[in-house]
Design a protein that fits this description.
The protein is α/β, with parallel strands linked by helices. It is about 40% helix and about 20% strand. The protein is globular and about 60 Å long.
């Protein structure tokens, strides 16, 4: 039986992801920084997955691009919105009525799906970087902590510090005030995580079964735990949460 290779590319503001399907099976994944050249990032991710399975670009039957830089991918068969691709990718792992929370580098999405997978509604937070990956990156820089170490640092905090500002710039000013009082860094890191959770909870009531995706979720398990605690029920995460959009794009490529 001849393989049918389909490629999904999610060119996000911070990272570009690729998922390669052979029929219904995922054969390869790749991730790289998006940087200032979305087209180059998309090509680099495509080439990485192709090399890993010994294919050439001409072997790909269809490529669907999604995300922030989807219109910059000139070799894509078509482009599809990230809302549609995240919904498709999540529903493949959780085929039932779900509420999806995706925390990206520059925005957050809340997508409600019906039992059939049809999209009921969605909301996006684009007004400010607060509550996104960019916010946590700024906070890590302010605390002099590597971004990769922020999750473990926050786990050491007790949660006695609150950041009240909706603005990343003002939140950093709040942090400076707490630092001046001698507040331990773990408390400040945990406050940043709790601030992200507050922004999410303000976007939507988050009814029903909740699934979280995105790079922030992939690297910061505490975020999921805090949302679960706030909702008082288990929150689910797909096996590869950062690749949900690219997976959904690959599925759409396979089906069209």
């Amino acid at each position: 039986m001849t393989s049918r290779w389909s490629l999904g590319l999610d060119i996000g503001a911070s990272a570009t992801k690729a998922v390669l399907l052979d029929g219904e099976r995922v054969q390869a994944r790749a991730l790289c920084k998006s940087g200032a050249d979305f087209a180059a990032a998309a090509k680099a991710c495509r080439d990485e997955v192709l090399t890993s399975v010994g294919l050439a670009a001409c072997d790909i039957e269809r490529t669907v691009a999604t995300g922030y830089g989807r219109h910059r991918v000139d070799f894509a068969s078509t482009s599809v919105t990230e809302i549609t691709c995240h919904a498709r990718g999540c529903y493949a792992s959780f085929p039932r009525a779900i509420t999806i929370i995706d925390i990206g580098g520059q925005d957050n999405k809340v997508i409600l799906l019906e039992e059939t997978g049809a999209r009921r509604s969605f909301r996006m937070n684009r007004k400010c970087a607060a509550g996104t990956g960019a916010f946590l990156e700024e906070i890590a820089g302010q605390l002099g902590t590597p971004l990769a170490a922020l999750n473990e640092l926050a786990r050491q905090g007790t949660g006695n510090v609150e950041l009240g500002s909706f603005c990343t710039v003002f939140a950093k000013t709040e942090l400076l005030a707490w630092i001046a009082r001698g507040t331990p860094l773990p408390e400040l890191a945990r406050a940043a995580f709790r601030s992200v959770v507050k922004r999410i909870l303000e976007m939507d009531p988050l009814a029903g079964e909740v699934v979280m995706t995105g790079g922030v979720v992939a690297h910061n398990a505490l975020i999921v735990e805090l949302v679960s605690a706030a909702l008082r029920r288990e929150v689910f995460v797909p096996e590869y949460p950062q690749y949900t959009g690219a997976f959904g794009a690959a599925l759409i490529a396979r089906e069209t």
